[in-house]
Amino acid sequence: MAVATERRVSASSSPLARSETKKKTRQTHEKRNFQQKSSRDAFRVGALSGCAASFSVQTCMFPLNTVKTRLQARAPEVSLKTLRRTLFRGLYAGFFVDTLGSVPGTGVFMATYEALKSAGVVPPAVAASVAGVAGSLLVAPADAIKQRLQVDASKTLRGELRTIAHSKSPIRSLFVGYPQFLARDLPFDTVQVTTFEVLKRWHASAVDRRSTPRELAMLGAAAGAFTGMVTTPLDVARTAEVCAAAAGVECRGASCLAALVRRGGPGVLLRGAAPRMLEISLGGAIYFSALEAAKRALGWDESESRERSHDR
Predict the structure, then answer these.
(1) Which one, of 228, 216, 218, lies nearest residue 188 by Cα?
(2) Using one digit for the tens of pLDDT, what is the confidence trace for 264-295?
(3) Which residue positions in the chain have pLDDT lower than 70?
């Protein structure tokens, strides 16, 4: 009798159990499809907004970057008075090749970062680091050529490309200083992006509304100034290897920076810190303003996306 009763209960509850299982399966599929679509949208928006923001910064801030690079690449025995004769000449030297690398490189960076952040598979700091590696494959070679053109006004893009092509290892010449580039830019990207995200969330919760373009510019400037200061020694290390010959140093890797410190003292680690902070602070204001404006123009709302993903 007990067995028969148990069978009847099981039979009566079986359709309900199957219905619940089907419902959960359907919800799982819907959630997965939504996350995939959200990641694709984030990738597209990130790529387009990243390119737009990068070009805006490049156009406005390149002269200041040139001044910073020349200050860092100065040989220790060359006085600032001597350097001033050429410091402000040809401030857009290397602009074309750097733009060819940095604009699509930033697009790749933001596309990767936004897609990973939207998927929620890794923390934002890790997403920024992964995105930095992806973007560096385009940015690093162009950055190296740009720095050499900035330091020596007599060099031309065609001449630099010919020198690289005829070198013993063109790939190695193209990626000269790449470890220093990663050592500088991965912390830089992680610190700047996460600092801006933290500041943006803090401000949104403080004022209980969406930040205005002016407020986003101020938050971007604050994130840029902080990042520029703490990563200046890493930037000096990168410039030291790329422009070693111009500074009268024959070296590779970390030995370049060590050689400059021996010749110029510990102060060399903060060379160009003031223009770098100014450049990245102003650049941060322009970059993040342009980035957020482009996202909104493309109809991307991060808060809505997060809410919908949570609801699912």
Answers:
(1) 228
(2) 788 888 888 888 898 889 999 999 999 989 98
(3) 1-37, 76-77, 243-254, 301-312
The token pair at 58 is 């490049």
Predicted confidence (pLDDT) per residue in 68-118, tens digit = 888 877 776 677 777 778 888 889 988 999 999 999 999 999 999 999 988
**CB-CB contact of 293 with 47 (8 Å):** no
* Euclidean distance between CA atoms 306 and 312, whole angstroms: 10
For residues 65 and 58, give the distance between their C-alpha atoms in angstroms, rounded to a whole number.
9
Instruction: Say how far apart CA 46 and CA 113 lie, in whole Å.
Output: 8
Q: Is 90 left (phi over 0), alpha (psi -120 to 50) or beta?
A: left
Q: What is the rounded end-to-end Cα distance, in angstroms, of the chain?
A: 45
How confident is the model at residue 198, as a pLDDT? 92
CB 280 within 8 A of CB 224: yes
Q: Roughly what angle, to the nearest 10 degrees, separates helices 273-297 and 178-207?
A: 60
pLDDT score recorded for residue 79: 74
Looking up tokens 């949104």 gives 204
- CA 146 to CA 281: how far, in whole Å? 21
| Contact (Cβ atoms closer than 8 angstroms) between residue 283 and residue 57 | yes
SS3 content of the chain, % helix, strand, coil (to 5): 80, 0, 20
Place of tokens 């938050």: 219
Task: State the Rg of the chain over Cα.
Answer: 25
Q: Which two tokens stand for residue 192?
A: 């700047």
Could you please report the per-residue DSSP string of 1-65? -HHHHHHHHHHHHHHHHHHHHHHHHHHHHHHHHHHHHHHHHHHHHHHHHHHHHHHHHHHHHHHHH
CA-to-CA distance for 269 and 262, rounded, in angstroms? 11
Q: Which residues of 276-307 are buried (b: 16+ CB within 10 A; e: fewer)?
A: bbbbbbbbbbbbbbbbbbbbeeeebebeebee
Contact call for residues 41 and 308 (beta carbons, < 8 A): no
